Amino acid sequence: MMLDTSGHPSNREQDENRARNDSPSKQACPVNSHNEWDPLEEVIVGRLEGATIPSNHPTVTSNIPGLAAKKVHALVAGMRFPKIMSEPAQRELDGFIKILESFGIKVRRPDAIDWKRRFGTPNWRARGFINACPRDSMLVIGDEIIETPMAWPTRYFETHSYRALLKEYFRAGARWTSAPKPELRKELFDDAYRIPKEGDPIGYVLTEWEPVFDAADFMRCGRDLFVQKSNVTNAMGIEWLRRHLSDRGYRIHEIESRCRMPMHIDTTFVPLAPGKVLVNPEYLDISRLPPILKDWAILVAPEPNPIEDRLLKITSMCGKWLSMNVLTIDEKRVVVERHHTSMIKALEKWGFEPVPCDFLHYGAFGGAFHCATLDIRRRGSLESYF
Question: Homologous superfamily of 29-378 in CATH?
Answer without folding.
Answer: L-arginine/glycine Amidinotransferase; Chain A (3.75.10.10)
